[in-house]
Amino acid sequence: MIFSLGIPATANASSITIGTQGTDAQIWRHISKSSAAKQAHLTIHVKEVTDSVQLNQATGDGTIPVNAFQSFSYMEAYNKENPTRKLTAVGTTYLEPMGLYSKKYKHLKSLPKGATVGIPEDPANLTRGLKLLKTAGLITLKRNFNALGNISSIKSNPRQLKFRQIDGSTGPRILSDVDAVLMSNTIAQDGGLNVLKDSLVHEKVSRETNEDVNVLAAGQKYRNNKSVKKLIKLYRNKGIQRYIKNEFHGTKVEVIKPISALKK
């Protein structure tokens, strides 16, 4: 079934529709009203769609030429499930770092042996959390660890950490019940936390986090479209980046990498 939003699939040199959601919608509404967009002679129509799968399907079939809300790994997983409506990443935007938070300890080295760590149970954030713990030197992972990895993928656990799988959205509420909690940046922000200041350790832009970088995704018909290329350039605008940094307290870390760098 084709998902229709009543939006013409026109994407010409002067006008384009971008589908988005959440804080990304806020960013793109700002960009659409910016002087940079006017100088680029580009009219941007921002369409907010809360259902991620429907948004990707609308982009895949050309109803919405381009979207901005998802990580590269999420897009790749969608493509595997939707081979007839595949998307192409056309530009990188930012990394929202996952962090490890604690109310009981102020430094990572203070986390004791046998500490209980809350970890999101959804597959994407579960594997991401395990990768962060590995990078922090708290665990090692089996060689075949991949996007389907879980707790059983842990090879060694020298600190004898205990894991409590949780609904990711409850992270801020259970901080007092466990020794530490892994949280996505969106959830942490909802709980009044800043990943750059309040976490014991957080993701950084590196090869380890390439797949977690957010991207602009286009349908096959629009992957080389001139207006889509203008969107990428607009996102890089220094004034736009200043706004994003100030509005989100530095927690949306700009990433300028070729798409080829995100692929394994």
Oligomer: single chain
Order of strands, main sheet, comes to 2-1-3-13-4
Task: Name the shape in a single word.
Answer: globular
Q: Tell me the distance between the termini.
A: 32 Å
Number of strands: 14
Largest sheet: 5 strands, mixed
In the CATH hierarchy, the architecture of the largest domain is 3-Layer(aba) Sandwich
Order of helices and strands: EHHEHEHEEEEHEEEEHHEEHHE
Q: What is the mean predicted local confidence, pLDDT?
A: 92
Secondary structure: helix percent: 25-40%
* CA radius of gyration: 19 Å
Uncertain stretches: 1-13
Annotated CATH topology of the largest domain: D-Maltodextrin-Binding Protein, domain 2
Please state the structural category: alpha/beta
In DSSP terms (H or I, runs of 4 or more residues), the helix count works out at 9
Corresponding CATH superfamily of the largest domain: Periplasmic binding protein-like II
Number of domains: 2
| CATH level 1 class label of the largest domain | Alpha Beta
